[in-house]
Amino acid sequence: MFSKLFAESGLSLDRLKSLLEVGAAGSIVKAAGGDPVRQSQYSRQIKELEDFFRIKLIERQGKGTQLTPNGKELARISRFFMLGLSNFQRGCLAEEQTFRIGAGATFSRQFLLPVLSAAQKSGASHATEVVSDGEIERRLHDLTLDFGIVGSAEISRPLQTKILGQWKLELWIPRALGLNEAGARRSFQEQRLPLVLAGNELAGLAVPELEKYPAKLTCHDFLEARTALEEKNLGAFLPDFIAANKMPKAFMQIRILKIDARTFPFFLAWNPRLLRLNPHATCERDLLAQLLSWQLAR
């Protein structure tokens, strides 16, 4: 069945591992950490794979390299295969499983870290990363993340999602600005209200009223926006789960009908191939979904 694969030399786990490392690093130089001996080894091993399959696996891009479409497909197959072997080895050695979870900065701080800290009796270990939705989707396909928290169920196949909960966006301003609610609303509509906006985390929400708003300060995430708001010079749009019932009397909520009426979801996302590779991942997925849903509903 596999006789043709082994009729020639050039295919090995070590060579496939080199392809994965170069693809992940973005260049042979980066993968080798500047070590000329390892650079030569990576170049030789990938060339041997190219000779074996008779295709190009990497190509130059600027000062670095990237995997060709064939290279990406071989890397995907190799990663799937090696993850299966790694899980088998871990089971044989009775080693603890580590699950890698990607999420935005605010979700990770408010929900994911508290849930994982409280769930350490589950028998698994966890590693979290702050990652954008687009990067989460790509890495779930690559199986370099096990689970991710995203804001849309519209992700490419075969990825799957489960809704965890919904939230709203609220406008808060410091009373020190000297505005009443009507005046603040009018200033916002005229784009004169001084605001700090969480650029990265607002970008994926598609809120037309904020897309071209001339912010006085743009930061990365909602937690940073709240920190800026607390200086009492700027207003901020914040998720209700970090604003509601938690803002001191020095701040006032301003109702913006078109924004207040909207809800935004959080979804747990995963690659079903992971579940086939690792049966324990199904239990982990179900536990994560349950605990995070409870946390969001509090």
Produce a short descriptive summary:
This protein is α/β, with parallel strands linked by helices and 298 residues long.
Helix and strand topology:
Blueprint: H1 13-25, H2 28-31, H3 36-53, E1 58-61, E2 64-67, H4 69-92, E3 98-103, H5 105-118, E4 125-130, H6 133-142, E5 147-150, E6 160-167, E7 169-174, H7 181-189, E8 195-198, H8 199-203, H9 208-211, E9 217-219, H10 222-229, E10 235-239, H11 240-243, E11 251-254, H12 257-260, E12 264-270, H13 272-277, H14 280-297
Parallel strand pairs: 3-4, 3-5, 8-9, 8-10
Antiparallel strand pairs: 1-2, 5-12, 6-12, 7-10, 7-11
Helix pairs in contact: 1-3, 1-4
Structure write-up:
The mean pLDDT is 90. This protein has helices at residues 13-25, 28-31, 36-53, 69-92, 105-118, 133-142, 181-189, 199-203, 208-211, 222-229, 240-243, 257-260, 272-277, 280-297, and strands at residues 58-61, 64-67, 98-103, 125-130, 147-150, 160-167, 169-174, 195-198, 217-219, 235-239, 251-254, 264-270. A hairpin with a 2-residue loop joins strand 1 (58-61) and strand 2. It has 3 domains: 3-88, Arc Repressor Mutant, subunit A (Orthogonal Bundle), CATH 1.10.10.10; 97-165 and 265-297, Periplasmic binding protein-like II (D-Maltodextrin-Binding Protein, domain 2, 3-Layer(aba) Sandwich); 169-262, D-Maltodextrin-Binding Protein, domain 2, CATH 3.40.190. It is α/β, with parallel strands linked by helices and 298 residues long.
